[in-house]
């Protein structure tokens, strides 16, 4: 049995140190997790690779000193570029023939994917709860609103088309209609959507979205760029709903680019380890990625966690429903939506959608 090969093949990072806390083994998963090669790590002190007060260093020290295993369900390690990765830590002593602790080994498991999935589930639950509340509220508001609309119409007729007061009744009608539209959108979020999923050409769909937004892009000095994978197979989706998704995403991108820039629409068959394949009920199906990338303001870190919340907006005229609706629609497609953003540089929103076959 070649144990080195077994360790190399493990998805978890395995690192061993000698009794001086000098690194003697560093498997491939450790290379991936830390973005540091075994060649550059082995032979160095672990506190040179991680900071001296890092949990992993402390836990290995304790294991060497006591001969006992240590574990931490939730900790972090810092990569060379300062990025922090959530990990779980388990250490164990390695003893020689005489029973003395000669070395220690630590297993680090990358938790970022699990965290991402948890966030996804939580987001779904928040939206569902908000949706249920919205249905109750909408029913309560719609009836009195209907009565107001009727009364205002009567009033308008009564005062005649030439009255100065007509201006006021017009405002009332417009505003009542606006509230009604908001309620409709909210109900949209809450109702189970009846998807009419058929095989679709994603590029034709994106072209329609581009056409709808051509004027808006020109006004802002934004150049639309297409990076389509020409061999992309048809996807399985509801045309109207997906138009709504990409229209919302393109509008958000344009809103973020007040001073021009490039808006890129790209497509490809997904190789993403998390969302690249999904189970649609009858086995695994490959997914397609459709990405809307802008060079706009980016999303500040403090705001990022809330952008999918219904009614969260940073815009004067925004409703804050765009992204929650997108999320809802992609969920119905058994797809996913992922946002990456760098403040001051731009944002990239990726939609994962199933292939037709
Ligand atoms: N491409 C983007 N660049 C920068 N910020 C964005 C981008 N997309 C979304 N956001 C942020 O997320 C918030 C929520 O977006 P969402 O589309 O849900 O609502 P909205 O655009 O504010 O209003 P609505 O879409 O209902 O008109 C926005 O107000 C904005 O702060
Ligand atoms: Mg929006």
Briefly say what this structure is:
The protein is of the alpha+beta class and 357 residues long. It has helices spanning 3-9, 28-34, 38-41, 46-49, 55-66, 112-159, 166-190, 202-220, 239-256, 301-304, 322-332; strands spanning 13-18, 23-26, 70-78, 84-95, 101-110, 198-200, 222-227, 235-237, 261-269, 277-279, 284-294, 336-342, 346-354. Magnesium ion is lined by residues 248, 251-252, 322.
- Gyration radius (Cα, Å) is 28 Å
Strand content: 25-35%
Order of helices and strands: HEEHHHHEEEHHEHEEHEEEHHEE
What kind of sheet is the major sheet? 6 strands, mixed
Distance separating the two termini? 41 Å
Low-confidence parts, pLDDT < 50 over ≥5 residues?
Answer: none
CATH architecture label of the largest domain: 2-Layer Sandwich
**Mean pLDDT over all positions:** 90
How many H/I helices? 11
- Helix residue percentage: 40-55%
Query: Which cofactors or ions or other ligands sit in this model?
Result: adenosine-5'-triphosphate, magnesium ion
Query: How many beta strands in the DSSP annotation?
Result: 13
The CATH superfamily of the largest domain is identified as Histidine kinase-like ATPase, C-terminal domain
Just give the CATH class of the largest domain: Alpha Beta
Count of distinct structural domains? 3
Q: Indicate the CATH topology of the largest domain.
A: Heat Shock Protein 90
- Return the structural class: alpha+beta
General form: elongated
């Amino acid at each position: 049995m070649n144990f080195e090969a077994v360790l190399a093949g493990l998805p978890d990072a395995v690192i061993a140190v000698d009794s001086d806390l000098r690194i003697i083994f560093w498997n491939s998963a450790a290379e991936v997790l830390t973005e540091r090669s075994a060649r550059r790590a082995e032979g160095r002190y672990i506190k040179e690779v991680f900071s001296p007060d890092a949990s992993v260093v402390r836990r290995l020290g304790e294991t060497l000193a006591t001969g006992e295993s240590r574990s931490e369900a939730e900790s972090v390690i810092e990569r060379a570029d300062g990025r922090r990765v959530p990990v779980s830590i388990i250490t164990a002593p390695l003893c020689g023939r005489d029973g003395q602790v000669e070395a220690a080994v630590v297993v680090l498991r990358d938790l970022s994917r699990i965290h991402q999935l948890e966030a996804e589930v939580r987001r779904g639950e928040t939206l569902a709860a908000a949706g249920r509340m919205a249905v109750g509220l909408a029913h309560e508001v719609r009836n009195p609103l209907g009565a107001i609309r009727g009364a205002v119409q009567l009033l308008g007729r009564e005062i005649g088309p030439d009255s100065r007061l007509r201006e006021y009744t017009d405002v009332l009608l417009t505003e009542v209609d606006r509230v009604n539209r908001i309620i409709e959108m909210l109900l949209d979020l809450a109702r189970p959507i009846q998807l009419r999923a058929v095989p679709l050409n994603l590029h034709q769909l994106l072209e329609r979205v581009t056409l709808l937004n051509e004027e808006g892009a020109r006004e802002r000095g934004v150049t639309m760029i297409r990076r389509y994978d020409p061999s992309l197979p048809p996807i399985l989706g509801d045309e109207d709903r997906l138009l709504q998704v990409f229209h919302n995403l393109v509008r958000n991108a344009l809103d973020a680019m007040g001073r021009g820039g490039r808006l890129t629409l790209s497509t490809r068959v997904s190789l993403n380890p998390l969302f690249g394949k999904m189970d649609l009920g009858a086995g695994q199906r490959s997914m397609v990625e459709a990405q809307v990338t802008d060079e706009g303001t980016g999303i500040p870190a403090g705001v990022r966690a809330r952008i999918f919340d219904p009614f969260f907006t940073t815009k004067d005229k925004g409703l804050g429903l765009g992204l929650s609706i997108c999320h809802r629609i992609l969920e119905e497609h058994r797809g996913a939506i992922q946002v990456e953003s760098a403040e001051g540089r731009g944002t990239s929103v990726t939609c994962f959608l199933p292939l037709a076959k």
